[in-house]
Design goal:
L-arginine/glycine Amidinotransferase, Chain A, elongated, 3 domains, 5-stranded mixed sheet, 11 helices, 9-stranded mixed sheet, 15% helix, homodimer, 42 strands
Chain lengths: 702, 702
């Protein structure tokens, strides 16, 4: 029944074998045994390599090879001018390379034998291999199109960019409805059907006989290091054929099994005979951070039995790589979806203003009631909205600040839910300062800096000067988290000069049709003084700021402009803002024409320090117009209560003139009593959840 | 005295300015003030940018600019066809860019003024700048030639490769002689003169007037994250002119000051007038690890005073980057410098053999006495020799295993010293197993794998199968350390099948003149059986192993070859070694011809496990010849006590024949009673400190 194979050199291997990816076990050393026949399982796409000399009986001089048609082999060094049926001279380095081109229908349905001959062509021994071929492929969506393709040659590595490859994993940090709410990745029980879409599908494709030869088995495994970042589930019922990331039907998943987790680094998975696909669901558990680059490997091995008391040998390993999706922030240039504010006993006026604005832009206003906010109105400071994205699914994720004011439970209790994720970083109480409020955490629109693209913009935070021997800082755990996300490389600005210390007190971004698609707005005392001096020169020196405000003495322009101390304070403030201006120009690649200076004055307040040293820090002199809310082309700006000129507030008029040139409309919202007097403004008191970027983060080039 | 500068456009900036590196403060926004003259410090290589419009008095329509010859300026948009002496029309976006080309001799020795005019060319105000120019450069050996060059444009970043750049730092882990020995980087007191060569020189070069204008100062600073990895010292006497890494004279350093450390992230450094150089000494404190990529930045800023209670503003920052040198292992192909063994009450025979061998190769034998080793003879297992290297200095560094047998104090007490560094990783007792002995940690000679060069070879460790649900492993802290060194990318082999569990029980490397410069030697039961069967066939079946050994029953070849169980055990061992062979071929890019199979048999021993489950693991049947010591072309091989054929041990004869073909000489050392019977051999009982690679690790390409 044996035939000589027609393929006698490695270059004659079937094309599909040459195209298959290089696998961990692609060439396996096999021992021949002339004492007894061996049953061998062969994995398609690999080859078996055997030293002909090593197992030859003593005095062997020649050998011949026979096999069934399903088996291909080659001999090196290639025999000179002999038919393979004729005994071939045995050399010290004679090697036989064996492969097969299709999966076996039955166990041991293929065969290869090597016959050894002595000096006089006398048969000294025959080594017989009974071969079973199986096809095994652990598959993921390595080409990032939302569908798990078959055996992608790049599935075992990860590369950034539009021509890159590698599968993507979400941190399953939203919360399916359960009795006691927590992020799904912290749940210990079996996931629900609705949870599977937050995981990445991984398919084990196999082809072969109905059963593997006795003792052989498939094992899925992860490293100890990866195990704290990932879990793998599968359906209890094997043989599922779906391989897209559509919502699986409830019958399929009603019985999910946990395969791998922090406690189980390795587990057997069933082999299903014939042509089979088994779905696995891979769940990310943690975001990239200082000690985690976001990459995770999952392997599947075929194990060969040895005997009791001895570990099975992996004879083939297939590996896939995932990267955990980073947490991404959304700049002001993205469309708003929901606006969040707090209701307090004293902010009715503000709420009315916000309600009108939000209604105008057709967005949704969500009001956090007083029993939840307990009087903490700083919606901006407690949390930052972002999102995570993959080719198959995305959802918003709130980053909860370690600030933890009275609003501290809002992100977890009110936002975390189905398709709304939650992440936080825990800091020691003593390490948390006002700079940890997320009014001090912003993100720029997309920029290009010296030829380097940042299509998702760059994160901005405020800290003390790097040269400061003391000073407040954003806590290290949050900074480490932000830097580790990698796709919106952060920039550290100087905000410690401000009493409250948030970068949103001196800067914001608004959309614009021309130039880079946006403008950077900066608070500018110089612009304020310039405006006021012009008004004074035009005879409006007696015009008053703060007119008609309860509990606030009005002040004339002349009084302001004659206040030498205030001028000196504002010179200092301008130099602090200019320092940031220089950094922002450099790090965002901006020109002066990309920046608009807003007329805003500050004043310095004495801060009592523990060390009894006097420190002065800045607060806005009148409502800080740059601290605005940006909803598309509509701006909600703190009403400045500036000097009236010809019946109109000169600050509002200047602001409108500057913004209308960019095609933006200004709505001034009275936040004087309820926010400004408490050292915050419209932006501090609101938060906006925005649409994600169209640009996909995995298309970034590094 | 004022003259109009001849350079009126940025492209006309002096060439040296255009060549200077992009600095953190290279373009600084400056406010003009028509109310009072300003004193401004300018740093050469940067420019001052000022908005002409922002500070213009109301109604200004024109301006003109005058300056001393030392000052260059340009105006954008460029004025149309007017002399600069004629008033130029003021536009909304008019910008003045100011720079200077050489350091000031005296404070405020340069001047620039801007005059503003109204409609009828009436002067409305003059802004006057008194300028002081200084040159500041924080310098390191960024081109890696052992000398600190001046203002290398690449000093602020780090790039691998022979065309790369970036300075290098050693972990100061050796120990200068002190009262109580510890690694220098753990010393709290001021370093000694002899310690400076272990640090990297950093030079602050300044040029300018005798003093900086009042209140200005220089500050050196590091980030919180870097502060745990680096310290910076300087001489108390400023103005040192040395800039090579020669041994500094004792007068220079007798008074060292600590500038930066974990407790001091920022500190003022003196400004020395005229042309000055000040030496700083930078000390690495920790090796790259899982949470530390090895990169460290040090910055120097020029601070401008504001007023009491306000932080000084950094107006210029220069930055340098270091990478901490990785710990590098030395393969068998490097020349031996010292050989270490233990003296015990029962190993006289072994010591004699080692002494002869070491004398023959002209190396030094260092014997650890019994009062130090307390009977622990496994010199290989307690420690691994390596080294750290930089362009200016290198020294050996011992990695102390968490194994901690009776030899545990030897690396610290006996090896750590001047120019001999020490590093260890602390593991929990329960996480430490036999696989943490460094007989399980080896390194290959240089290899090229699929076109990728590993000129420092690759580290090899032994673990359980990745698929194993249980099994021993090298502890995670050591694995993390090894991977983080990056320059000898580790390979995990399977060694848990061995009773002792060390990779040196089945493999080693020896030098060879041909092919890749080395051979991989593998223990091979198949080769053993082949040899023995041949001998049996030739009539030597009654030849005995273990003849003349006390307490060891001799056994005939016939008995061995008839033992079916032993054959089965060795088949299993061969399959384990073959698994490793496949990995080694793949990961080191080896062909079969790069590998030599040594005739070595194993047997399985029952290991009693806590869970009362039976586990069998392998030990060598006769002295394990692959567990040899390699000293140049001389091999010290465990004497196998094999069957005598024609008066000569057939195993020794086979071994000699295999090795002599490679130009290597074999010395057989009797370790039977004192090592083999205790489950170790020559390699386990010795250790070799070798010469470092000629290849410099920073020339690696990634």
């Amino acid at each position: 029944m044996f035939q000589v194979s027609q393929t006698a050199s490695p270059s004659a291997l079937p094309a599909f074998l040459q195209k298959r990816p290089v696998m961990a076990g692609y060439q396996r050393t096999l021992r021949l045994d002339t004492n007894r026949p061996q049953a061998v399982v062969h994995v398609l796409g690999t080859s078996l390599k055997t030293s002909l000399n090593r197992s030859a009986p003593p005095s062997s001089k020649f050998f011949s090879v026979k096999c069934t048609p399903s088996v291909q082999y080659s001999i090196t060094p290639p025999p000179q001018g002999t038919s393979h049926l004729t005994p071939i001279p045995l050399q010290g380095n004679s090697v036989l390379l064996i492969s097969m081109s299709q999966a076996s229908q039955e166990e041991n349905d293929s065969k290869l034998s090597v016959c050894y001959y002595g000096e006089n062509k006398k048969v000294l021994g025959i080594a017989v291999l009974h071969l079973t071929a199986v096809e095994i492929s652990l598959d993921v969506d390595a080409d990032r199109d939302g569908v798990v393709e078959k055996n992608n040659p790049n599935k075992g590595s990860w590369k950034w960019g539009s021509s890159g490859h590698g599968a993507i994993l979400l941190v399953n940090c939203d919360s399916e409805p359960t009795y006691q709410k927590k992020p799904d990745c912290q749940e210990d029980c079996t996931p629900k059907v609705s949870d599977l879409k937050d995981m990445s599908l991984m398919v084990l494709r196999t082809k072969g006989p109905a059963r593997l030869p006795s003792g052989y088995k498939l094992t899925m495994h992860i490293s100890q290091g990866d195990a704290e970042s990932v879990r793998v589930f599968r359906s209890r019922i094997p043989g599922v054929q779906k391989n897209t990331l559509q919502q699986p039907s409830s019958t399929v998943v009603k019985d999910l099994l946990r395969v791998l987790s922090i406690d189980v680094l390795s587990q057997d998975v069933p082999y299903v005979g014939g042509t089979a696909e088994m779905n696995f669901y891979v769940e990310g558990l943690r975001f990239p951070d200082k000690d985690f680059d976001g990459l995770i490997s999952i392997s599947l091995s075929l194990l060969e039995p040895i005997s009791a008391g001895l570990p099975e040998t992996p004879i083939f390993t297939d590996k896939v790589v995932f990267r955990v999706a980073p947490w991404i922030m959304t700049p002001n240039t993205l469309q708003p979806m929901e606006v969040f504010v707090c209701s307090t006993s004293d902010n009715n006026q503000f709420l009315k203003g916000m309600n009108n604005l939000v209604a105008k832009v057709g967005s949704k206003l969500k009001i956090c009631s007083e029993d939840v906010n307990r009087g903490d109105r700083w919606m901006q400071d407690e949390l930052e909205f972002g999102y995570i994205d993959s080719p198959h699914h995305w959802f918003p994720v709130v980053l909860d600040s370690p600030r933890d004011g009275e609003l501290q439970d809002f992100p977890y209790d009110e936002l975390l839910g189905p398709d709304f994720g939650y992440v936080t970083r825990i800091a020691k109480r003593k390490d948390v300062s006002s700079l940890d409020s997320f009014g001090n955490l912003e993100v720029s629109p997309p920029v290009t800096v010296n030829g380097k693209n940042f299509p998702l913009g760059r994160i901005l935070i405020g800290v003390a000067f790097p040269t400061a021997t003391k000073g407040r800082n954003m806590t290290k755990v949050v900074q480490d988290f932000l830097w580790a996300q990698k796709v919106q490389e952060p920039i550290a600005l100087f905000s410690d000069w401000l009493f409250v210390g948030h970068i949103d007190e001196f800067m914001t971004f608004v959309p614009a049709k021309d130039r880079k698609g946006f403008r950077l707005l900066l608070a500018s005392p110089d612009a304020g003084y310039k405006l006021f001096r012009g008004l004074q020169k035009d005879g409006h020196g007696q015009a008053k700021l703060f007119e008609g405000l309860k509990g606030q003495e009005p002040v004339t322009l002349d009084e302001i402009l004659n206040d030498k101390s205030l001028q000196a304070e504002n010179n200092y403030v301008q130099s602090c803002i200019d320092w940031n201006r220089d950094v922002l120009k450099r790090e965002l690649g901006l020109d002066d024409d990309d920046i608009v200076d807003l007329p805003i004055l500050f004043k310095l307040e004495l801060e009592k320090k523990e060390e009894e040293e006097e420190t002065y820090r800045a607060v806005a002199y009148y409502p800080d117009m740059v601290n605005m809310i940006v909803l598309g082309k509509s701006l909600g700006i703190p009403k400045p209560f500036g000097p009236k000129v010809n019946g109109r507030c000169a600050l509002e008029a200047e602001m409108c003139s500057l913004m209308e040139g960019l095609g933006l409309s200004c709505t001034f919202i009275d936040d004087f009593a309820s926010y400004h007097k408490l050292l915050g403004e419209v932006h501090c008191g609101s938060n906006v959840r925005r649409k994600p970027f169209d640009f996909k983060w995995w298309n970034l080039e590094f």
